[in-house]
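note to self — DONT lose this again. spent like an hour looking for the file last time. sequence + predicted structure for the chain T wanted, 159 res
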Amino acid sequence: MFWLDFAQSPQFLNIMYKLRFIFPLALLSVALFLLMTVSGCEGCVEKKVPVTETEAEIQFDTIAHDFGLIPQGEKREYDFVFHNIGSKPLIIQQVNPTCGCISEHHSVRPVMPGRSGKVTAVYDDAHALPGHFHKGLGIHSNGKTGFIMLTVDGEVVEK
């Protein structure tokens, strides 16, 4: 019964009278916030500038090579040539072979726009059994593409 007595008291009615404008404003503020969040508020978000004109971009002449038949115990190399077709220097950040039988050498210095570089894949089948193989080199760069997988195929045959 305390609540009913307090709700009818002059102090409570005076407080409610003073707060009569605050509740509708709070509800209106919450409604506007939700409306802006749901609609995306296009005027509130900065427009992004297309980045294609301001980045390095890597382009390989080919991303796959077939060594053909390789006598067991021999090494083979292939140069994957790439070009920087972007407008910023291109940096090969990391090259990850998918197998211990593949090693690589790559351009360490930044490749300027319009210039070329190479990633050399070396296949060493010292412990490989005869048969077909399919291996890869993961190329990580600061280019627009970011990651490219190069592949080498071949078949190891007995001597």
